[in-house]
Amino acid sequence: MTQESCSHDCGSCQQKCEEAKKPDFSVPANPLSNVRKVIGIVSGKGGVGKSLVTSLLASAMQKRGSQCGILDADITGPSIPKMFGVETLATANESGILPQQSKGGVDMISVNLLVEDKATPVIWRGPAIAGVVKQFWSDVIWSYEDYLFVDMPPGTGDVPLTVFQSLPVDGIIIVTSPQELVSMIVEKALRMAKEMDIPILGIIENMSYIKCPDCGKKIKLFGEGKTSETAAKYGIDFLGEIPLSPELAALCDAGNIEYFSDPFLDRATERLESLK
Ligand SMILES: Nc1ncnc2c1ncn2[C@@H]1O[C@H](COP(=O)(O)OP(=O)(O)OP(=O)(O)O)[C@@H](O)[C@H]1O
User: Where is the signal peptide (predicted)?
Assistant: First the structure.
C-alpha cells in the first residue's frame, strides 16, 4: 500500500508499517471520578498473597495520609471486603456506583459488595468477567483517590489484559512466594509490562519466613527465596518481604487487616510516594 492510498485503519491492515497505531481499548472513567495513580498488583499464580499485599499497601498508604481505593478485579475469587470486614453492599445513584469504605477510610468495590449471598459462585465466561472489571472503572464513582490499587486475578489471562488495556495503569507490583519459579514469573511480567508500556514498580515476596515465637529467629520454611536475587538480575526494585504470620492470618480472618502495622512494606510505600 502506498502512503497516498493509506486509509489509516491500522486494525484491518496487514502492512507492518512504522506508523501503525496500536488499537486504543481505553475505557473512560466515571465523569465524577478523580484518580491520581492506578497501581496493578499481579502474581504468577493464585494463593501467594496478592490480595493480602493489596490490602496492606492500601492500608499503609492510607495511614500515611493518602486517600486509597481498591478495585477488586479478582471477580471469581473476591477477598478484599472480607479482609477489611466490609459487609454492607455498595449502593448506586443516577451517576454511578458508590464504593464502600473500610473503617480506616479505604474505598473499595468488589463483586462481593454487589451480591447478597457471598457464597453464590460467579460462573461467567472471560468476556463477561472482563466487562465487569471495565464497569468497576467506568461506572464506579471514585470521587477522589490518590492511589487506586487493582487486585488482579493471577496470571496473564483475559482480565489482567483487560485491565492493562482499559485502565490507565501507572505501574505494577509483582507478588511472589519463595516456592515459586520467580525468574519465569518475573520474565513474563517484564514482557507483558513492556508490551503494554507499563512500568514495573517492584516485587514483594510474601511468606518469606516465620519468626520463632521464643527466640525471634527467622526460619526460612521454603529455603532461601530467590526473589531479591532475581529482582537484581532484571533491574527491578525488591520492595520487601512479608513473613508467614499467624497474627496476619487472624487479622485477615477477622476483617481487621488495617490494624496490622509492621515496617515490612516501608520500601514499597516509599516507592509509591515517589510517583506523586
Ligand atoms: N504472610 C501471610 N501470613 C499469614 N497468612 C497469609 C499470608 N499471606 C497470605 N495469607 C493467607 O493466605 C490466604 C490467601 O491469600 P490471598 O487471598 O492474599 O492470596 P491471593 O494471591 O490473592 O489468592 P488468589 O489469587 O487465589 O485470590 C489468605 O487467607 C490469607 O489470609
Answer: none
